[in-house]
Amino acid sequence: MKIALVCPANMLYMPYVGNYTKILDEEGIKYDVIRWDRFQIEEINEFVFRDSKACYKRGFFDYVKYSSFVFKLLKKYRYDKIVVFGIQLLFFLHRYLLKKYKNKYIIDIRDYHPLMHCFNMKKAIQNATSTVLSSPAYKQWLPEGETYTVNHNTRIESLENIHEADPSLPAKEHIFINYIGALREYQITVDFMNALKDSKRISLKFHGEGFVNKDIDAYLKQSPIRNVELTGRYVREQEPSLYLSSDMINALEPNDFINCKTFLTNRLYNAAIYGKPVIAFEGTYLSEVVKEYDLGLVIKDFNNTEDAVLGYIRSFQVELFDQGRRRFLEVVIKENKDFKEKVLNFVR
Q1: pLDDT score recorded for residue 236
Q2: How many whole angstroms separate alpha carbon 51 and alpha carbon 244?
Q3: Residue 86 half-sphere exposure toward CB, CA atoms < 13 A
Q4: Which residues contact 69 (CB under 8 A, 6 or more apart)?
Q5: In this structure, are residues 131 and 106 in contact, taking their beta carbons and an 8 Å threshold?
Q6: What pLDDT, on the 0 to 100 scale, is given for residue 56?
Q7: Extents of the domains making up the chain
Q8: Positions of the chain with pLDDT lower than 50, given as ranges
Q9: CA dihedral 258, 262, 268, 273 (to 10 degrees)
């Protein structure tokens, strides 16, 4: 048996693909990862598509070109089964999947996209072996009456792998709130920076590269803010040290767009694993999870943000936080085990 994993971007920005490859490797299943080298950072081979651009944001005709590349590989290698990532790729591949791969493909959805309204997505889901979601809240906008499997954006398998939370947090004189990952939301980032502009007790760091980095960098050059640092791209091996050097994790997402309102960032999971509280924005599903499991601070606007952060730090109870993150991660581990069983059934 041979599986095709059809991916819409660079591997650096799709760590969740590893949730599949880990299982396939353990089972000795052959597979190819077909991917789009949007940033021109990968070693070119037969399964890597690269065009003349080097950016994340792409348009309809860029997808047309990539889909043509994918079709050629699917027809050449005649894979037994396919995993397709994202609504955009599903839009371009759904007819082929329905014709050639009924009940032999998995749909993996990590983001909302309006293209879901441009084809019969319900039919594509009904004829898939499984439809995998990275957030339970995606069910709010996906077709009703269907069965979905949740695969969280983390590979943690045991609570033995988590780091201790820092009981000395309330005593710290200076707090580092770090964003770790692809930076993609401009306005809320600028609003947060301005809310804490030149604070003497709080510093903000942004680690990672996304499609708004250049805009944020330009803003900082035009309006210098002394307590903000934009560090850019990092390699995955650096991620543990970036989390461990943080006091809080910036998990702020806007609440005025359906995707941001319903998704769960991988920063939420990593923060829980590394023992760091998050700061989230009211009106998102992420903020509901933070409240339910005592995973950090939820703010409703950017008024008095410094007071809110310092107030949370002063009253931080490490035992309450630790109990909450353990409860949260237990749910995550269980749902990821259910996902693993679905994939194992798919490849056997």
Answers
A1: 87
A2: 37
A3: 16
A4: 34, 49
A5: yes
A6: 77
A7: 2-151, 159-330
A8: none
A9: -150
CB atoms within 10 A of CB 55: 11
Angle, CA 189 vertex, CA 134 and CA 56 arms, to 5°: 60
DSSP letters along 196-220, please?
A: TTT-SSEEEEEES--TTHHHHHHHH
Task: List pLDDT tens digits, range 137-190.
Answer: 999 999 999 999 999 999 999 999 899 999 999 999 999 999 999 899 999 999
Inter-residue contact 151 to 264 (CB < 8 Å):
no
* Nearest alpha-carbon partner for 151 in 296, 344, 334: 334
pLDDT of residue 274: 98
Task: Look at the block and give the residue holding tokens 């077709």.
Answer: 143
Closest alpha carbon to 20 in 9, 7, 8: 7
- Residue 84: which of 109, 102, 118, 61 has the closest Cα? 109
**Measured between alpha carbons, how far is 135 from 119 in angstroms, rounded to an integer?**
22
Over the stretch 283-308, which tens digit does the pLDDT of each residue have? 999 999 999 999 999 999 999 999 99
**Are 205 and 232 a contacting pair, CB within 8 Å?**
no
Q: Which CATH number fits domain 2-151: 2.60.120, 3.30.9, 3.40.50, 3.90.1690?
A: 3.40.50
What fold does the segment set 159-330 form as a domain?
A: Rossmann fold (3.40.50)
Distance CA 260, CA 252 (A): 9
In contact, 78 and 102? CB cutoff 8 Å? no
Q: What is the pTM of this model?
A: 0.91
The 10 Å CB-count burial string (b at 16+, else e) for 79-99 is: bebbbbbbbbbbbbbbebbbe
Q: Fold identical between 2-151 and 159-330?
A: yes
pLDDT of residue 57: 82
